User: Fold this.
Amino acid sequence: MTTGLVFNIQRFSLHDGPGIRTTVFLKGCPLECRWCHNPEGQSFSAQPLVKIELCTACGACVDHCPSGAVTMTASGPVTRGDLCTACGTCTESCPQEGRTIAGRMMTPVEVADEAGRDLPFYGPTGGGVTFSGGEAMAQIDFLVEALTACRERGLHTAVDTAGCLPWSHFTRVLPLVDLFLYDLKLMDAGRHREQTGASNRPVLENLERLARRGDPVVVRIPVIPTVNDDDANLEATLAFLRLHGLNRVDLLPFHQLGRGKAPQVGRSWSLGEVPGLEPVDLDRIRARFAQAGLAVTTGG
Assistant:
């Protein structure tokens, strides 16, 4: 049986599709969005997370690491990714409980059983299970088996995707997915590559194919001040949605969660100083989409 690398399972989620849901977060993503709020989901390997604010530089993690991956520097312990095996010894030895491992191997049956625990809550609310990430479809073999197991348990299934994948990945999951939550970030190819590290060509082409087929899709747009909230991008987005008959949109207001989590995986926050999204600005964008005839929600 295939196994998958899962970095979180969130029960009673209200922001990843309809109703009460269990959201399964899979590791690995082809994008490197500068605002990513789950940076621990980008790597395709299990990795340690270090809460710097809890670290006292006691050196226990250095002393106990069996692979010599952790060394002490003037600014605290540093973990070498090329040596770390994510064995978890450092997390067990940390007296401050400041280290955890992001990523554990699970079977499709284990995931489906976990999601199925809350089946009594799903029915009345139209809920179910949502696979997210990272990029859920990056672990395509595991995802197909996990979706199949969830369907066998009578669960409504949703997949949250950034769409930067071969269309062949979509064809494998189409019979198993009740709803796609499809992220659409930037319409300009150059700006998309600058902000995410990848082309938006497959993103747009795959979304167009889903629209032509008539598959249930909610387009999710992260609204990030100074990045994609300008008139040119909003108008280009609206034109694309109208052209392809995509009339369900969810606006996701920017937050600073990723800024605090980036150092936990040894990364710097590359987006810089971004102002918070004012409610009046979100309302303005929502009204703009609604006036274009789209069904608009905010926040998931």
The chain has two domains: 4-43+106-298, 47-102. The two ends are 33 Å apart (CA to CA). The domain at 47-102 is CATH 3.30.70.20 (Alpha-Beta Plaits). The chain has eleven helices and 13 strands.
